[in-house]
Amino acid sequence: MSSFNKPKLISDENIPVGLTELLIKEGFDVKKIPFGSTDKILSKIAKAESRVILTFDKHFIDKNLFPPKEHPGIIFIDIHPPIIDAILSSLLKLFNEISHSEFSGKLFILSLFGFRIK
């Protein structure tokens, strides 16, 4: 996958640093928000910088709180336990199947077995 097709990402504070580092090694532009930042701050930065949100936070699957159509994309990671290699593998499969432009306005629920769009 060329860097042209890779979405810019923003990782919630609950995303392991090791995962962020591996995504950067894979060529992704990943921004990590400062620890203690609120969900609203994360959402605001994501919109301002056109970044897809990576999170384990269930607040982001509440369409009333964070309507997907108002975001460049949201990826809710539903993988437990949160093993970094398993998450990275699932994310890379998602990024290989979905083009950069298809993330906008959508909520992706990511699991070990694939993903679904809400």
Can you describe this structure in just a few lines?
Helix content is 29%, strand content 19%. The protein is an alpha/beta fold and 118 residues long.
Describe it.
- By secondary structure, the chain is an alpha/beta fold.
- The protein has one domain: 3-Layer(aba) Sandwich (Rossmann fold).
- The protein is built from 3 helices and 6 strands.
- A 6-stranded mixed beta sheet has the order 2-1-3-4-5-6, with helices on both faces.
- Strand 4, helix 3 and strand 5 form a beta-alpha-beta unit.
- Helix 1 crosses helix 3.
- The protein is globular and about 30 Å long.
- The two termini are 24 Å apart.
Shape: globular
Strand content: 15-25%
How far from one another are the termini?
Answer: 24 Å
Classification by helices and strands: alpha/beta
Q: Quote the average pLDDT.
A: 95
Please provide the ordered H/E string of secondary-structure elements.
EHEHEEHEE
The total of beta strands comes to 6
Major sheet description: 6 strands, mixed
How many discrete structural domains? 1
- CATH topology assignment: Rossmann fold
Share of helix, binned: 25-40%
In the CATH hierarchy, what is the architecture at level 2?
A: 3-Layer(aba) Sandwich
Number of contiguous helices: 3
Adjacency order of strands in the biggest sheet: 2-1-3-4-5-6
CATH class: Alpha Beta
Low-confidence stretches: none
Over all CA atoms, what is the radius of gyration? 13 Å
